[in-house]
Design a protein that fits this description.
Structural class: alpha/beta
Radius of gyration: 13 Å
Largest sheet: 5 strands, parallel
CATH class: Alpha Beta
CATH architecture: 3-Layer(aba) Sandwich
Number of helices: 5
Order of helices and strands: EHEHEHEHEH
Distance between the termini: 4 Å
Number of domains: 1
Number of strands: 5
Strand content: 15-25%
């Protein structure tokens, strides 16, 4: 299974997604914004995948994706958002996200995307 960094600013949403990922057998570290997530990624080797929200304070998900793509190009990113404007997800893919999810999503959709970007997961 994968070691996943979940970057989500809404505590309730973070707990729900963390529980989903752990239910699928993954190890999950969490961060409340993109800056905190980037620090964790820089300091914690062995993260297999980053799952990030797009709309966050301090450092948004798009900026986080750009930084990960630049400094950790082998770490895949799945971007997620509750915004109904699909341009957010298209921009995320264009800037380096390997996959996207529109919130709310099911555990099956999450599992499918995680396996798609990290086949051993």
């Amino acid at each position: 299974m994968a070691h996943i960094l979940l970057v989500e600013d809404n505590p309730a949403t973070s707990r729900t997604i963390q529980a989903m990922l752990e239910g699928l057998g993954h190890t999950v570290a969490t961060a409340g914004d993109g800056a905190q997530g980037l620090r964790q990624l820089n300091q914690a080797p062995g993260i297999d995948l980053v799952l990030t929200d797009i709309m966050m304070p301090v450092l948004d998900g798009i900026s986080l994706i750009v930084q990960i793509h630049k400094h950790h190009p082998m770490v895949p990113v799945i971007a997620m958002t509750a915004r109904t404007d699909s341009n957010y997800l298209r921009n995320a893919e264009r800037l380096g996200a390997w996959a996207t999810l529109a919130k709310p999503f099911t555990i099956e959709e999450l599992a499918e995307q995680v396996q798609g970007v990290h086949p051993g997961a």
